[in-house]
Specification:
single chain; about 350 residues; alpha/beta; TIM Barrel; eight-stranded parallel barrel; two-stranded antiparallel sheet; 13 helices; about 45% helix; binds 1,3-dihydroxyacetonephosphate
Length: about 350
């Protein structure tokens, strides 16, 4: 394991004012996003859309790296450069989703365990050779009456830790993503309890597998009210609960926490990150690895038309600037308005 390489990569990914763009939707998920704007999902339309992000002038001011799907890592942008080269030229690190999806967990009805460990070292080595410098694996935990189960908590933590140790052996910084879903009517208190259980179990397994903590990033959910909970916790309460849960479970050796957006609105995802960073220095950098919260307005602006690429890029750069400001707690409603006009 090249610890120095891993630490350098992890630090670069959470450099000041920067965060990660998650553009690693599986073919099924990007298909759903395209359905929402009435665009057919093909290999060409997918790279046509995604290259608007990779080639947006100035993106690297607020984007340190981009998580790609296997297909995208092997595609090229319009001028013929392979995607990893286009990203590196633009000052962004290519990353790769290496799990093969959440599959039914036997013995735990309705729950999943994320698969993809078989042959993972060889795949990671190939991805490194193709230019990737970090990886992602997402474990999913659903809150429901009687769940998540002990089996779901243990199986996903084990898989996340096995993945992390394998990725590090291949020189890739593992983004460890235990996502407790916001879908449901659970309270913020329940969300916190379940997240604390899930995250502490993940770190116990990371220790067991000998993962080098200085060379990982954690990608957790924020602690919110469930999406259909009748009372929604305000921004400051979300910041308090999320920070408390992180401080109880995440060792200070971990260089950064890069939140997922999980279905929050783009503006709310920025406000929550901003509120946390306004609370002063924490043991880890607090940053973003947003998919929908960085892409949603750009997807609408693009609408499947190449001619709309500049508008899509403007929408994307606006969200990236706002989240970049949230890294230092300096985002504001005024900025939301003035940056959008740029
Ligand atoms: P969202 O920010 O849309 O939740 O996506 C992040 C991600 O990578 C989920 O695995």
């Amino acid at each position: 394991m090249d610890k120095q390489l891993l630490e350098n990569t992890a630090k670069a990914l959470v450099a000041p004012n920067k965060g990660i763009l998650a553009a690693d939707e599986s073919t099924g998920t990007i298909g759903k996003r395209f359905d929402s704007i009435g665009v057919e999902s093909t290999a060409d339309s997918r790279i046509g859309y995604r290259q608007t992000f990779f080639t947006a002038e100035g993106a690297s001011d607020n984007v340190s790296g981009v998580i790609l799907y296997d297909e995208t890592l092997r595609q090229s942008v319009a001028d013929g450069r392979p995607v990893p080269k286009a990203l590196t030229d633009a000052g962004m690190l290519p990353g790769i989703k290496v799990d093969t999806g959440a599959k039914p967990l036997a013995g735990a009805p309705g729950e999943t365990v994320t698969e993809g460990l078989d042959g993972l070292l060889a795949r990671c080595e190939e991805y490194f050779a193709l230019g990737a410098r970090f990886a992602k694996w997402r474990g999913v935990y659903k809150i429901f009456d009687g769940g998540p189960s002990h089996a779901c908590i243990q199986a996903n933590a084990h898989a996340l830790a096995r993945y992390a140790s394998i990725a590090q052996a291949a020189g890739l910084v593992p983004i460890v993503e235990p996502e407790v879903l916001m879908e449901g009517d659970h309270t913020i208190e329940t969300f916190e309890k379940v997240s604390q259980w899930a995250w502490s179990t993940v770190f116990e397994q990371l220790y067991t597998m000998g993962v080098h903590l200085e060379g990982i990033l954690l990608k957790p959910n924020m602690i919110l009210s469930g999406s259909t909970c009748p009372t929604q916790a305000p921004v400051e309460e979300v910041a308090t609960a999320t920070l408390r849960c992180l401080r109880r479970t995440v060792p200070a050796a971990v260089p950064g926490v890069v939140f997922l957006s999980g279905g929050q609105s783009d503006v709310l995802a920025t406000e929550h990150l901003n509120a946390m960073n306004q609370r002063g220095p924490q043991p880890w950098e607090l940053s973003y690895s947003y998919g929908r919260a960085l892409q949603a307005p750009a997807l609408k602006a693009w609408a499947g038309e190449e001619a709309n690429a500049p508008a899509a890029q403007a929408a994307f750069l606006h969200r990236a600037r706002c989240n970049g400001a949230a890294r230092t707690g300096s985002y504001s409603a005024e900025m939301e308005a003035t940056s959008a006009a740029m």
